[in-house]
Amino acid sequence: MEDTTRWAMRGTTACKHGKPGPLVSARGDGNNRREEREGDVEDVGLHRIQSIARPTTADEAWRLRTADPETTRFLGGGIDLILYTPETVTTLIDVSRLGRAGVSAGRAGLAISAGTTLSRILEAPEIAAYAGGFLRDVLRQVASPLQRNVATIGGAVARAHPWSDVVLALLVLDADVEVFDGAARSVPAADFYASRSQNVAPLVTGIRLPKRAPSTRGAFEKFARTGFDVGLLNCACVVEVAKGTCSRVRVAVGGTPALARRLPDVEAALEGKRPSSATIGDAASLAARGVDARDDRRASELYRRTLTEVGVRRCFERLTRDGMEGAL
Amino acid sequence: MTSLELTINGARRVVDANPGDTLLEVLRRAGHVGVKKGCGSGDCGACTVLLDGRAVNACLVLAAKAEKRAILTIEGLANGDALHPIQEAFLDEGAVQCGYCTPGMVLSAYDLLSRNPTPSEGEIREAISGNLCRCTGYVKQIRAVQTAAERMRSGRNG
Ligand code: FES
Ligand code: FES
Q1: Which residues line ligand 1 at a C-beta cut-off of 6 Å?
Q2: Which candidate, A15, A286, B14, B85, has a CA 20 to 30 Å from the CA of A56?
C-alpha cells in the first residue's frame, strides 16, 4: 500500500493506452459530443478547429471576426469555447495580445482590461478597496479557483450566461463595457446587453468601474450549492450611505432564468430611506412581485419569486449588519 | 498537426498538436500521465496543472494557449527521490486512497501555499474546492495541507 501511494505521488499510476476501449458514456452532440471510452483520453477538445489567429490590434481582430462570422469566434480564456463551441467554428481569434491584463486605478475609477483573469481581479488591492470589497466577494463565489485562474472578465461579459454572477455584479456597480466594433466605444453594461441583437457581438476590450464614494457597500446572494452550480437565482445590491440613509441604490436579480436585470422600482423605494426591517421587507416583497421570473426545468416562477424576496432581504440585512452599522 | 513548444517541468519540449487540442490531451500524449482525466469539463480537478504558477484545469485550457508559459505537472514536484513537503504530508496524514484526485489536490495546495504560507482552514477548503475526491471525506487532505504548511514554514519535511 505504501508503495502504491508513493507511485501515485509521483504521478505514475497506471493508465490504459492503446486502442479505444468500449463506450462508457456519451453526451452532447456535434462538436460538443463527449464520448467516454475506457482508457480513452483523446475525446476532449475542439477537433474541428483548424487554426488560431493571433491579432495584435482590436481592428485586426474585428476584421477577422466579421470576415466570416459563422466560422470564427474570439478566444479569451477559452473555457466556454472548449465546452460549447458551435460545430461551424473552424478558426479561433486569440484576443489575449490586444492589451495588457490587469486592473488600474485612474481619476474616473478603475479600468480592468478584458484579458484579466477573475483570480487576478479578486486579488487586486484596488478591487479589495472598491465598494467595500463587493466585487471581490462576488468573484470568490464564481466557479472554482482552478477556473478563475483561466476565465477572463472579457469572456464572462461577452458570453453572458443568464446565471452569470459577473454580469449581475457589473450591473449594480454601474460598470461600463468597453467595446470595439469598427470603432472603440464605452457603453453602460445594461445598454450593452439590451443592444446585443446584432449579427456579431462587439469585441469586449475592457470594463470601467466608476469612482464611488468611500461609503459604498454591496451584498450578493446566490442560490446554488457550489460555485460550479448554475444557480437557481442570484441577486445583488449596491448602495451609498449618506447621513444614515441609502442613496444611489442599485438592485438586480439574475438567473430568473434570464440574464440579470436591475429593478428600478425597488431601487426607488429604498432611495433616501433608512434601511429598517420594515423598509427592507417592503422592498423585498416589491422585488418578488416585480422580478421577471419564469419557469424552467430547474425552478418554477413561484419559487423564483420567493427566492428573490429572500435574496433581496438577505442582501440588505447583511449590508446593515456588516459594514454599515457606523453609518446607519 | 502543428508543432507546439512547451516548457514542461522546466524542460522545453516540442510536441505535435492540433489547434483545438486541450493541454490535458497534449500532456498525456507527451507521457505526463500524472495529469488525470476525470470529467473533461472542468468539474473534477483531476487534470490540475500549474500554468505560470497558477493551478488550472488542463482540460479547459487549449494547449496552444500554454505556449511560452511554464507548465508544472505532478511529475515535476518531487526533487529526484525526495518528495515535496506537500506530497510527504499527504502520505503522512493518510490523505490518499485510490490516488486519482491526488495529483490535482497536491498541485492546488502548491498554488495556495506558494502565495499564502499560513492559510486558514477556510482558505484551504476554498483552494481545493475545484478538486473532487470520491474516496476521502476531505478531512485528511485538509489536515495534510495544514501539516505541509507548518513544515514548509519551519523548513522541515517529514
Ligand atoms: S478532467 Fe479536467 S476538471 Fe475533470
Ligand atoms: S483518493 Fe480516490 S478520488 Fe481522492
Answers
A1: B 37-40, 42-47, 57, 59
A2: B14
Identify the DSSP state of A294: -
Cα-Cα-Cα-Cα dihedral sign, residues B51, B56, B59, B61:
negative
Cell numbers standing for residue A308: 428573490
CA-based nearest residue in chain B for residue A10: B75
A146 touches chain B (CB under 8 A): yes
C-alpha cell at A182: 469598427
Within this chain, domains B2-76 and B85-154 share the same CATH topology: no
- For the domain made up of A217-323, the CATH class stated in words is alpha beta
- Kindly state the cell numbers that stand for A80: 466556454
Mutation choice for ligand 1 from B21, B33, B35, B39, CB with most ligand atoms inside 8 A: B39
Apex A154 CA angle, A152 and A155, nearest 5:
65
Q: Please list the ranges in chain A whose pLDDT falls under 50.
A: 1-20, 30-32, 38-45, 325-328
Domain boundaries of chain B, sorted by first residue: 2-76, 85-154
Whose atoms come closest to the Cα of B98: which ligand? 2
- Can you give the pLDDT at residue A9? 47
pTM, rounded to two decimals: 0.89
CB atoms B42 and A92 under 8 Å: no
